[in-house]
Amino acid sequence: MKQKNIYIIDFDSTFTQVEALDELARISLKKHPDKEAIFKKIEDLTNLAMEGKLSFGESLAQRVKLLEASEDHLKQLITRLKKKVSKSFSRNAEFFKKHADQVLIVSGGFKEFITPVVSQYHIKKENIYANTFVTTGDGKIIDYDHSNPLSEEGGKVKLMQHLNLEGDLYGIGDGYSDFQLRESGMIKKFFAFTENISRESIVSRADHVTPSFDEFLYVNNLPRAISYPKNRILCLAIGDIPEESLALFKKDGLSIRHKTSFEDKYVKDVHMILLGKGEKMDPEKLKIALKLKTIGYLGNTLSKMDLQACTAMGIVVFEDPKNNPRNANFIPKRMLDFMNKGTTYLSVNFPNLQLPRIDASHRLIHVHHNVPGIMAQINTVFAKHNINIVGQFLMTNSLIGYAITDINAEYDKDLFKSLKKIEHTIKFRVLY
Asked: The ACT domain covers which part of the protein (predicted)?
């Protein structure tokens, strides 16, 4: 009988983008005359513990003493934390709903603020393990329960030893206390979560570095909101590229390389290319860039690339021939809209299609030569695989057809193979 998988997830800087005690300090000490010095002290104590340079128990005790917090401050903190859930966790809420029995939140933080935040994601209260505060009658936080193993150095290991769970355990977190679970041999794999912060001392010892929760779900073959983690999408920026353009790609979670030229080592793996004004697209490199989905050009593509060859390969091209100053923002946004939603609006070589995202569905893109009968073949494949179509759209030009189909969340994996085998198919991909 197959062992049940259990997923042990950290809270601070993992499930949420921030360290909750640091945020609580900024709320509780808002009017304190020495607040900046105290904030710095608390942040330093947090980092020392997360990097394994100070015992967790000592760090926690010192931080709680510095807080001067109350239950009213906790209410403000909870409101703030609900808005600071890590983006990749937030978009995969459906995973937590379907795997509620397998997910544990294990944190050196405090239940008082963790439970209201993670409970929104269908995580069971009995699966939340954290510290608890001690308060006075008027609601002031004066201490915490020192008998809780999670308040001590190596607390997560001690807790897991006590729980003695059956199954294969996987840990995901950003700090030393998370790595200690791997070091103890109690978990099968430790995933260093780096979406919010990357600690070299932890990353260097992890079984796998996961820049997002999507990556964690992907490598473990678990259901997820997007089909392919954004951190695996390679975007090359070539030539004179404004920092504003790169910032947009970074914010979206893409893997970015800024180079002076299109180096051979990237040709086979590149998904997106942003070209600075005056740069040329080498026709020979274009031919073998089989994963390339879109090219953005910060200027006029005339004589700079073969648009017909791009179209024949199913590569969507965006340009701004008027050299408008806004193109540093405008072109990358068009490329991201295409990658995230399939939108080809204002491309120079593809039929223009602009669609809203449809929740609780998967969006499939099929690019094909514009010959009669392709849509009939596509829908025959869907019918054979008992697929429920939520929405379907087709736009064509003289050369190609661009079809987008939104299907329900349940599907046979062989469906994709069948769609790719349709004659005259140029490119097929799953957006989310």
From this structure: 363-432
The confidence band for 56, taking pLDDT boundaries of 50, 70 and 90, is confident
- SS3 of the chain: CCCCEEEEECHHHHHECCCHHHHHHHHHCCCCCCHHHHHHHHHHHHHHHHCCCCCHHHHHHHHHHHHCCEHHHHHHHHHHHHCCECHHHHCCHHHHHHCCCCEEEEEEEEHHHHHHHHHHHCCCHHHEEEECEEECCCCEEEEECCCCHHHCCCHHHHHHHHHCCCCEEEEEECCHHHHHHHHCCCCCEEEEECCCCCCHHHHCCCCEEECCHHHHHHHCCCCCCCCCCHHHCEEEEECCCCHHHHHHHHHCCCEEEEECCCCHHHCCCCCEEEECCCCCCCHHHHHHCCCCCEEEECCCCCCCCCHHHHHHCCCEEEECCCCCCCHHHHHHHHHHHHHHHCCCCCCCCCCCCCCCCCCCEEEEEEEEECCCCHHHHHHHHHHHCCCCEEEEEEEECCCEEEEEEEEECCCCCHHHHHHHCCCCEEEEEECC
- Structural domains in the chain, sorted by start: 5-219 (3.40.50.1000), 233-341 (3.40.50.720), 361-430 (3.30.70.260)
Q: Which residue has the tokens 């299907």?
A: 407
- For range 28-39, the mean pLDDT: 90
Query: Using one digit for the tens of pLDDT, what is the confidence trace for 11-23?
Result: 999 999 999 999 9
Cα gap 394→36, rounded to integer Å: 57
Confidence of residue 383 (pLDDT cuts 50, 70, 90): very high
pLDDT tens track for 279-317 = 999 999 999 999 999 999 998 998 999 999 999 999 999
Predicted confidence at residue 23, as pLDDT, reads 94
* Dihedral angle computed from the Cα positions of residues 287, 288, 292 and 293, in that order, rounded to the nearest 10 degrees: 40
